Amino acid sequence: MTRRDSLKATVAAALLPYFATACATLSAGEPLETPEADENATAPLPEVPLTEAAKMPSGAIRIMQSPDPEPLLAEIRAPEFAQRLAQATYDFVATAYATGNLPLWKKPLAQVDLLARMRLAAEAMLPAITANAGVYPVDPAWLMGQILAESFFDEFAISSSLAVGMCQFIRTTAKEYGMVCADAPLISAGLREPQWQDEARRAETLRTTVRDLRRAHPDLFARPEQGLRQLVRLTQQNPSAAKRTATDWQRIWDQQDALQADLQSARRNFRAYLEANFEGRSIFNAEDDAFLAAFDQRTLPRFAVPAMVRMMARHLRARGGNILAATAGYNAGLGATAYEAPGYATYGRIPSFEETVNYVSKIAIHYHGIRTRLHG
Question: Rounded CA gap, 165 and 158, in Å?
Answer without folding.
Answer: 7
